[in-house]
């Protein structure tokens, strides 16, 4: 679940604040939330890639073991 779908961890300033200040604070808060979103997305992509390569490495190592056993048996005959 993306953080943008959750409540933003940065509290927005109250509406009673001066408009210019409110605008600036609001923009800063949005930038922080966008950075959190980007970090979350990057971490998610990285973890998925890592999981993909770990699965492939595990499969390749098993195939290498099976192949080496097969070749050893072929050498015995």
Keywords:
Secreted protein, disordered N terminus, mainly alpha, 77 residues, 0% strand, 1 helix, 75% helix
Descriptive overview:
There is one protein chain. This protein has one helix spanning 19-76. The protein has 77 residues and is mainly α. The chain has one domain (16-76).
Summed up:
The chain has 77 residues and is an all-alpha fold.
What is the average per-residue confidence, as pLDDT, rounded to a whole number?
A: 69
- Structural category: mainly alpha
Number of domains: 1
Main sheet attributes: strand count, strand direction, barrel closure = none
Number of strands: 0
> Counting H and I runs of at least 4 residues, what is the number of helices?
1
Order of helices and strands: H
Radius of gyration over all CA atoms, rounded: 26 Å
Low-confidence spans: pLDDT under 50, at least 5 residues? 1-7
Strand percentage lies at: under 5%
| CA(first)-CA(last) distance | 57 Å
Shape: rod-shaped
Helicity level: over 70%
Itemize the secondary structure elements and their pairings.
Elements: H1 19-76
């Amino acid at each position: 679940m993306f953080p943008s779908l959750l409540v933003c961890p940065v509290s927005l300033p109250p509406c009673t604040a001066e408009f210019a200040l409110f605008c600036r604070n609001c923009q800063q808060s949005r930038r922080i939330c966008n950075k959190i979103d980007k970090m979350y997305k990057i971490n998610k992509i990285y973890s998925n890639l890592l999981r993909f390569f770990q699965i492939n490495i595990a499969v390749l190592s098993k195939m290498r073991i099976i192949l080496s056993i097969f070749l050893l048996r072929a050498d015995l005959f």
